[in-house]
Amino acid sequence: QHVVLYPMVSKSLRNIAAGKDPLEGQRHCCGIAQLHEHHSLGYADLDELQKNPQPLIFDIEVLKVEEPGSYQQDPWAMTDEEKLQAVPLIHKEGNELYRQGKVPEAASKYYDAIACLKNLQMKEQPGSPDWIELDQKITPLLLNYCQCKLQCQEYYEVLDHCSSILNKYEDNVKAYFKRGKAHAAVWNVAEAQADFAKVLALDPSLRPVVAKELRSLEARLREKDKEDKVRFKGIFSQ
């Protein structure tokens, strides 16, 4: 009787381990209604336990011991107010890690801050003032995250995120610039040139920076052309 709701708890824990929302697929109702609502939890062992509750033995392993005051809650475990308070702190931690050259760690911090705000945004009506306010807080964090992903050479993720920003904010110079760099990195030459042209149209003061990126792209294209000629020459000479 004390563990009758364990299948639901276990599903949430498995969602957390997979990086998903722990309440994915659930609705606000009492525990018994949840049991009737979910004919399958997606796991055969949990389905069986839900149909036939039985005494359970929990085997708990201590992974680490943290000093008092050093523990930071995961975003999914925070209240809405705690999420809002945590975002500036997590953002600051991400900036500091980036300055230290710890780029993957910084990306993880930005991701956590974004997750906090996205969770809050899901509770608002899309397009409402509160939704827009949260989205405007998400955008700079997402751009920081994209900068980290550029340095980690995860270009297609940058393309996706920058495009999602530009679908909402057509004048975001940073999004065009980062997307242009990502396009250049994956040899989408025309798309890169178009994005860099848009950067210049929106902010002419960035002409030296854009010119440097275009020169780099042209140099890479010339080098690639030389390599292709050598490669194809070898093929046709056989």
UniProtKB/TrEMBL annotation:
Q: Which GO terms describe its molecular function?
A: peptidyl-prolyl cis-trans isomerase activity
Pfam families, sorted = PPIase_AIP
TPR repeats by residue range: 173-206
Its annotated compartments are: Cytoplasm
User: In which domain of life is the source organism classified?
Assistant: Eukaryota
Q: Which residues form the signal peptide?
A: none
Q: Does the keyword Phosphoprotein apply?
A: yes
Location of the AIP/AIPL N-terminal FKBP-type PPIase domain: 4-62
Annotated coiled-coil segments of the chain: none
Record carries keyword Nucleotidyltransferase = no
Under InterPro entries, the record lists:
AIP/AIPL1/TTC9 (IPR039663), PPIase_AIP (IPR056277), PPIase_dom_sf (IPR046357), TPR-like_helical_dom_sf (IPR011990), TPR_rpt (IPR019734)
Spell out the GO cellular component terms annotated for this protein, sorted alphabetically and separated by semicolons: cytoplasm
| Location, primary (coarse class) | cytoplasm
Q: What keywords appear on the UniProt entry? A: Cytoplasm, Phosphoprotein, Repeat, TPR repeat
> Subunit structure of this entry?
Interacts with RET in the pituitary gland; this interaction prevents the formation of the AIP-survivin complex.
Function description: May play a positive role in AHR-mediated (aromatic hydrocarbon receptor) signaling, possibly by influencing its receptivity for ligand and/or its nuclear targeting.
Q: What is the official name of this protein in its record?
A: AH receptor-interacting protein
